[in-house]
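Q: I'm a student working through a structural biology exercise. My instructor gave each of us a protein and asked us to get a predicted structure, then write a short paragraph describing it. Mine is Invasion gene expression up-regulator SirB. I'm not confident about reading structure output yet, so if you can add a plain explanation after the tokens, that would really help. Here is the sequence I was given:
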Amino acid sequence: MLKHFHLTFVGITVILFLLRFFWLQRQSPMLQKKWVKIVPHINDTLLLISAIALIVYLGIYPFQTAWLTDKLVGLVGYIVFAAIALKARQKLWQWFGFLVAMGWLAVLFHVATSKQAIMFG
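A: Happy to help. First, here is the predicted structure for Invasion gene expression up-regulator SirB. I'll explain a few features afterward.
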């Protein structure tokens, strides 16, 4: 059940990121809605809590399990570049951040589904 919650929060995170980036590119007034500023933080908090719960429940930890270390590094990479995508003022930097963030999501997806480390294996 924890895994299903976690995957649900992952899906919501990706959808919200894509939606917010789309609105940013269209200069949509939706970005100014209060819920758009609050809901992603709530969801990401629940995502983090579910990840920690899974780690504790399964008894596997980053720096002891190579693929989980990769996921932690990938998460940090995604967060950094998603922030660049959504906060940069210039379109070039927004798109750069978006594309790199999507690359990190691909790495995270691969590592999560294969349980094979790419970087620290």
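A: Here are two points you could use in your paragraph. The mean pLDDT is 95. The first helix runs from residue 2 to 25. It's a good idea to check both against the output above yourself.
Q: Great, thank you!
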